[in-house]
Design goal:
It is built from six helices and five strands, in the order H-H-H-E-E-H-E-H-E-E-H. Helix content is about 55%, strand content about 10%. With about 150 residues, it is mostly helical. Helix 3 packs across helix 4. It starts with 8 loop residues before the first helix and ends with a helix. The protein has two domains: about 45 residues; about 90 residues, no CATH class. About 5% of the residues have low confidence.
């Protein structure tokens, strides 16, 4: 008596070819959609300078600030990551606020991922000596302390 699962070779390879063909069609459709989206939004794409001036996105701003500090050698992230991407958790936010204060900038942030998703977040506010400054000015102030 024969045990196990036996598949007719022709049926098996036929099914594999159908799956491969379907995957190829999905991939082709995906790339067509990407090309269409690029064409539709080609005039809407912002430069890095324009993106720096966009208000809002507090969690995104804070995450970007944390990455900037890390590039300068200031540890912000707690070490946890998700698929290799550092997580900005409660400890990370505390480290971020402390780093800003250490380098003479006070930050007022919402720090809400949920607020970013539903559109209720307010832009982070940056202060030097009690005077509100732009995010760009705050980073110029910090970078100057690193000789950059």
């Amino acid at each position: 008596m024969r045990r196990g699962f036996f598949v007719d070779g022709k049926k098996f390879f036929g099914a594999c070819n159908e799956i491969r063909s379907a995957a190829y069609n999905v991939q082709k459709t995906f790339w067509r959609l990407i090309i269409m989206a690029n064409e539709i939004f080609k005039d809407e794409i912002l430069s890095d300078d324009q993106l720096d001036q966009v208000a809002g996105g507090t969690f995104a701003e804070s995450y970007g600030d944390a990455r900037n500090f890390e590039k300068l050698g200031v540890k912000i992230f707690s070490g946890e990551s998700l698929v290799g991407v550092p997580i900005l958790d409660h400890e990370g936010f505390a480290n971020l606020r402390g780093a800003f204060e250490k380098y003479g900038v006070t930050i007022k942030d919402d720090g809400s991922v949920f607020g970013d998703i539903v559109g209720t977040s307010k832009a982070n506010q940056y202060f030097i000596n009690g005077k509100q400054v732009s995010r760009d000015e705050a980073w110029k102030h910090i970078n100057a302390q690193f000789g950059k």
